[in-house]
Design brief:
By secondary structure, this protein is mainly alpha-helical. It has one domain (3-114). The protein contains four helices and no strands. Helix 2 (31-56) runs antiparallel to helix 3. It is flat and about 50 Å long. The protein starts with a helix and ends in a 10-residue tail after the last helix.
Length: 125
């Protein structure tokens, strides 16, 4: 499995976690809490997908400087998107903060879980 595949596998794992979380929250606390948790998880999924797409777009062969700049710029956009989406959902939509942040936090766990079964193979030619 290459690095690009791993990045998209993480996004897929985050999506799975989000859906399971929504089902559990709906069963235990109802749709209001589940929707807030799902929105938080969606923020994590969307920003991770943005990062993966941004980092892996363009040519495969690039200088180290170009790769580092691409990662830094992707991370800056991800951070800005995350802050903006949280501000919008809490400030404008009035979504409950606790389930929102729990949903987001659980998507971060996907980074650890998704990387357990994989050992990346270098894509050098």
């Amino acid at each position: 499995m290459g690095y690009k595949s791993i990045a998209y596998y993480v996004v897929l794992a985050q999506t799975g976690i989000a859906l399971v979380l929504a089902l559990v929250c709906t069963a235990i606390w109802g749709w209001s809490t589940a929707s807030a948790a799902l929105i938080g998880a969606a923020i994590g999924v969307v920003t991770s997908l943005q990062m993966a797409v941004w980092v892996f777009r363009g040519k495969a062969e690039q200088s180290a400087k170009q790769v580092v700049l691409r990662f830094y710029s992707a991370e800056a956009v991800k951070l800005a998107m995350t802050v903006g989406l949280f501000a919008f959902t809490v400030g404008v939509l009035g979504v409950a903060f606790l389930p929102l942040i729990v949903g987001y936090s659980l998507t971060l766990v996907a980074y650890w879980l998704a990387l357990l079964p994989v050992q990346p193979k270098p894509e050098f030619k």
